[in-house]
């Protein structure tokens, strides 16, 4: 009979450390991202400041919209205000009376 051949594999000393090292690397990555990433703890201040700025802009836009709505409402009424119609006509035609002073912006 022939002797049976077997493959013997020598176990590496580093083998048991492969999975824990990969796991620690992934955990370190996520820990770093949770601290300094786009939505991390450090960027919370920047997002809060941006939110304050955006809320201020929203308040300004709301005031502007309210003023425009008031103006549009005065044009929609059955009774148009004479000065509003006069102002619109002068602006559209780029005209004015001789006795008026025109201030260009």
Describe this structure in words.
By secondary structure, this protein is mostly helical. Helix content is 62%, strand content 0%. The chain contains three helices and no strands.
Provide key terms for this protein:
105 residues; mainly alpha; 3 helices
Which helices and strands occur, and which strands form pairs?
Elements: H1 18-36, H2 43-76, H3 82-93
The Rg value, from CA coordinates, equals 37 Å
CA-CA gap between termini: 109 Å
| Quaternary organization | single chain
The average pLDDT value, as a whole number, equals 84
The H/E string reads HHH
Largest sheet: none
Transmembrane segments: 12-32
Protein name: Cell division protein FtsB
Keywords: Cell cycle, Cell division, Membrane, Transmembrane, Transmembrane helix
In a few lines, what is going on in this structure?
With 105 residues, this protein is mainly α.
